[in-house]
Amino acid sequence: MNAAYTVMDYLHGKVADYTVSENVISAICFDRDTEPSTPASDVDERLRMLCYADLLRYIYLQPGMTKSYSQTNGTWSQKEGATQLSVEDKKKILAEMRRLYAKYGE
User: Fold this and answer.
1) For 73, phi and psi rounded to 5 degrees?
2) Among 41, 48, 80, 87, which one is least packed by beta carbons within 10 Å?
3) What is the pTM of this model?
């Protein structure tokens, strides 16, 4: 595994369909006493999966709909779309979160 692939990268990859700020992931890592810049391969599976469960919890607790925004400056532009969590999405997230917490005794 490439040492440049960090815990931050890993967690972003696990929830790639959701917009989650680096601040959120940094706070989750802080709560789990790890640095987001730590190579993912240096972190044991339990810690990675509990950080992932914490991230799922964050997503689960968000409002069902988030709004989009766009910024433009000359030829540069950035757009982020709206995300809507359906009841089914929330059920799947909750089930996975509970499974992980139970597996690792939390």
Assistant:
1) -145, 100
2) 87
3) 0.79
